[in-house]
Design brief:
Bound molecules: 2-amino-2-deoxy-6-O-phosphono-alpha-D-glucopyranose
Strand order of the largest sheet: 1-10-9-6-2-3-5
Largest sheet: 7 strands, parallel
Number of domains: 1
Strand content: 15-25%
Mean pLDDT: 97
CATH topology: Rossmann fold
Radius of gyration: 17 Å
CATH architecture: 3-Layer(aba) Sandwich
């Protein structure tokens, strides 16, 4: 069952989540964090940077694993998720560069790259806390709806909806968004010890209902979160607005 927490605003949610992460870092210096990209986590990263500057969040022992990356983009590409993370978080906190982990979209052998990533997560002791965003089509990471889902990190073809949703990184040109990506699998995500799914804004209302109350189906990858023993959905009022009617 997904436990739901509702906050007055995206900013209140971001503050509470940044404090939760800072507390986890104090309790466990070598915390392993799974991180998302997208618009949703930007206020969270802003809060973490602010907390770090104020001496309230120490990342010196932590490791991070991001969920996904576009295929064909080098880490240094200005449009890569790796660059997005550098801009919003990595460059402004005291994470050790060798403990920042990413799927390399420019790897010569994508399959080997995915296997390497799974090994690196296992070697780090698994993910302690996985933060997730939610695609409007029910995707988490880049696990797109379909007839089947991959358990482990894998190469994936992106839907037009998802490419459109990511167009802002590509000067709003959907055709420039890579057609494929590398992503953690549903199993990679579900092996995390704790999962927090974040959704804000009325546009995510329907997606939240299907995720929290819907039947489990590969047509809605986020529905599989319901089987996890320690999973929460953190929502602002707008994203939660359709939930009370559904529950
Ligand atoms: C992208 C990412 C997902 C993210 C989703 C939602 O497709 N691969 O990990 O959750 O966008 O984005 P937003 O938060 O901008 O709605």
């Amino acid at each position: 069952m997904i436990r739901v927490r509702v906050f007055a605003s995206p900013e209140a949610l971001a503050r509470a989540l940044a404090n939760d992460i800072a507390r986890s870092l104090r309790e466990r210096r070598h915390l392993v964090l799974g991180l998302p990209t997208g618009r949703t986590p930007i206020p969270l990263y802003r809060e973490l940077v602010r907390l770090h500057a104020a001496g309230g969040a120490d990342f010196s022992g932590a490791a991070t694993f991001n969920l996904d990356e576009f295929l064909g983009l080098a880490p240094s590409d200005p449009r890569s998720y790796r660059t997005f993370m550098a801009r919003h978080l990595f460059d402004a906190v005291n994470l050790s560069p060798r403990r920042i982990h990413f799927l390399n979209g420019a790897a010569a052998d994508p399959r080997a790259e995915c296997a390497r990533y799974e090994r690196a997560i296992a070697r780090a002791g698994g993910i302690d806390l996985q933060i997730l965003g939610l695609g409007r089509n029910g995707h988490i990471g880049f696990n797109e709806p379909g007839r089947s889902l991959a358990a482990d990190s894998h190469r994936v073809r992106l839907t037009t909806t998802t490419r459109r949703a990511n167009a802002s990184l590509f000067e709003n040109r959907t055709r420039d968004v890579p057609a494929e990506a590398l992503s953690m699998g549903i199993g990679t995500i579900l092996r995390s010890r704790r999962i927090i799914l974040v959704a804000t804004g009325a546009g995510k209302g329907r997606a939240v209902v299907r995720t929290v109350c819907g039947t489990l189906t590969t047509r809605w990858p986020a529905s599989f979160l319901q089987v996890h023993a320690n999973v929460e959905a953190w929502l602002d009022r707008a994203a939660a607005s359709r939930l009370s009617a559904a529950l």
